[in-house]
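Suppose a colleague, Dr. K., hands you the sequence of a protein chain of 535 amino acids and asks what its three-dimensional shape might be. Before reaching for any lab equipment, you can write down a predicted structure in token form. Begin with the sequence itself:
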Amino acid sequence: MEMADQKTVAKDAVSNNGVERKSIEDFDPPAKPRRNKYALACASLASMTSVLLGYDIGVMSGAVLYIQKDLKITDVQVEVLTGILAVYSLLGSAMAGRTSDWIGRRYTIVLAGAIFFAGALLMGFAPNYAFLMFGRFVAGIGVGYALMIAPVYTAEVSPASSRGFLTSFPEVFINVGILLGYISNYAFSKLRLNLGWRMMLGVGAIPSVLLAFVVLVMPESPRWLIMQGRLGDAKRVLARTSDSKEEAALRLADIKEAAGIPEECNEDVVKVTKRSTGEGVWRDLLLHPTPSVRHVLICAVGIHFFQQASGIDAVVLYSPRIFKKAGITSSDKLLVATIAVGSVKTMFILVATFLLDRVGRRPLLLTSVGGMIVSLASLGMCLTIIDHSHTKLMWAVVMCITSVLSYVAFFSIGMGPVTWVYSSEIFPLRLRAQGCAIGVGMNRVTSGVLSMTFISLYKAITIGGAFFLFMGIACVAWVFFYTFMPETQGHTLEEMEQFFGKYTQWRSVARELEMRKNKAVVNGDGVSGEGQLEK
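The predicted structure, expressed as tokens, is then:
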């Protein structure tokens, strides 16, 4: 199709209310569009905030070994210290939804960096356990803000052709942060006991300062700009973050419709109704959702729950303990083994970013969970054998290490990135910030519960039994994903709602079919009622 014809189609699609709307898929570009460098830069800068969470997870896994020796704390206190940040981040993610609608996505990212900076300094200078916990509280608020806003901003600024690739960046930077945390553990482990762990935690303030300034060069999300009535600014951002002028026009028209702005309105600044700016969001999301919104919410909450409940934080946060249980006793070897975990995790998340827009969300997710199930089964079996053996079994030690690396590799190619991509793209515009906040809230609650109970769990049911439990949860997750979650690859954010709610519709159809069938039997019409409904 010639460019002139594309412009005609785009004009018809966005200007005439009576003409059937067309999606970006209806265009026939001469070749696959090149990666939008401006959108790539915006997504990279926004997603760098996820380094904050990753660094804290990675550094705490090793730092807690030295904290326990220095502050003389119990295993229960170790659990609480390690996992409490996830619970604290729940508050941050809950506040981030409203904050991002109020001051914008960009300044919310700046706020996240500033809060984490304060938390990192407090942890680095903590004289005792109570002060350290206060630092964890402040840092957790910043992490919660970063977790919610980074994927939302990235999804809203990305063109449909590369949204999966770009929206996976937060998970990429979480993995980079984890690897940096592991390296920090090894680098500062040679310092004296009371200084080493404080340096490990305090260094986390450095990237947060850089992020707060770098983010200021980013544009605001075009969807947030339109929600504020700033159409002129939104048009300029869309022109730079879309693959073509036609796509920019379509994205603008779709967002205007979602925000309740008349399609024919072309002013640079317009007055937006209260409904478009967030009033009644919680009612429409939780109290009186449509079937499609209810389905979206179930999918978002479900994928975040299963991401954490399948054991990833237990493996990443407690990898030194797992390797110690497997038979590695040297502190240096334990830290080197954790660096291997971080390296594999980072390498495979990079592979996943290039597959999301080619293979699709569902195939990657189902393959990922399937591989995690096998890895968890292998890890549980080997740890159980080692636990019951009176001699060191080198083959079992090697299998444990291999199973951990395999588990984080499979997690990183699907479950890790798809969770953030999927949950940030399926909510309708007006419900997106608060909907994502609910998903992140579930993620943080599950992570916190798991992190704060893992040591007690494996002491109660053995460490092998703990991983068999995670395997069972992963099996349930696979069935959930296969049953409930449709593919969203290649569709605009405004088209998402049409793919959800169908399971509810089919249940209604099935009930009506049964009623028609019963009525037909009573009337002596055979199955004519059923046949009529099928038509």
